[in-house]
Write a structure and sequence with these properties.
Elements (H helix, E strand, L loop, with lengths): L1 E11 L4 E11 L12 E4 L6 E9 L6 E9 L7 E14 L2 E15 L13 E5 L2 H7 L1 H4 L6 E11 L5 H16 L10 E5 L8 E5 L1 H7 L1 H7 L5
Antiparallel strand pairs: 1-2, 2-9, 3-4, 4-5, 5-8, 6-7, 6-9, 10-11
Helix pairs in contact: 4-5
Protein name: BTB domain-containing protein
Organism: Rhodotorula taiwanensis
Length: 230
């Protein structure tokens, strides 16, 4: 396997950011032979400061690629912030064209996420599963060359969305409340009523829920219900 380039493109702003790491390499994915040190890149830009490596997980018997991982180090849970999305994509580059073979998205969420196991730190990366047989079935031209050395591009885009406006927060939390209000498998006392006036109808439509449920599921309603607005 040879690596032709490992590049980083960056676009950042004061309230959001977007980084894109791109690995371009040539390999026979059906029988891997790796120089793993060539796939590591140390970044100095905040908030992604640390080491990032493209790691390959192959089948122990056949050597066939099973998973691609964008691994990072030096980051603690939440260092990248909240409302962060991570998009992974593997492309086959042939005759000047890019064909997407596999893709996966994470978030928006706090990144890196914290492991739930006792004593666990932050997750050390994001993984993209690769099924060469399934990919070949959907792309006959790729199936014909899968066991030869081909050019590939792996992209990891990490972006933080800007904070929501107050209006968006209110609408989003209201939608959350109305969606959850009817999902009381263990009913709680209903002490909150949303009223929806309807033209030509004397009595507005009513949607009942509980302050306990709203406070648990929505920071906006939690603040409102504990304030003097009640």
């Amino acid at each position: 396997m040879s690596v032709s380039s490992v590049t980083l493109t960056e676009a950042s702003a004061s309230i959001a950011y977007s980084f894109k790491l791109v690995w371009e390499f040539a390999a026979n994915l059906s029988c891997l032979s790796l120089d793993r040190d060539a796939f590591e890149r140390k970044l100095k830009q905040n908030p992604m400061q640390g080491r990032y490596r493209l790691d390959f997980k192959d089948d122990e018997l056949s050597g066939e690629l099973r998973r691609l991982c964008c691994l990072q180090s030096d980051l603690s849970a939440g260092d990248l912030g909240e409302r962060v999305t991570v998009d992974l994509r593997l492309e086959w580059v042939s005759n000047g064209e890019e064909v997407t073979l596999a893709a996966k998205s994470f978030g928006p969420d706090i990144q890196p996420r914290k492991r739930t196991t006792p004593g666990g730190g932050a997750y050390d990366g994001w993984a993209l599963d690769v099924d060469l047989a399934a990919i070949g079935a959907g792309h006959p031209s790729f199936h014909a060359v899968v066991d030869t050395v081909q050019s590939y591009r792996f992209t990891a885009k990490i972006a933080q969305k800007p904070p929501r406006s107050q209006n968006e927060t209110e609408i989003g939390d209201f939608e959350t409340a109305t969606r959850l209000a009817g999902i009381n498998l263990d009913p709680l006392p209903s002490d909150i009523c949303f009223m929806f006036p309807k033209p030509g109808v004397d009595r507005p439509l009513e949607l009942w829920t509980s302050s306990a449920l709203l406070s648990t599921e929505s920071p906006y309603f939690q603040d409102m219900l504990t304030s003097e607005c009640q």
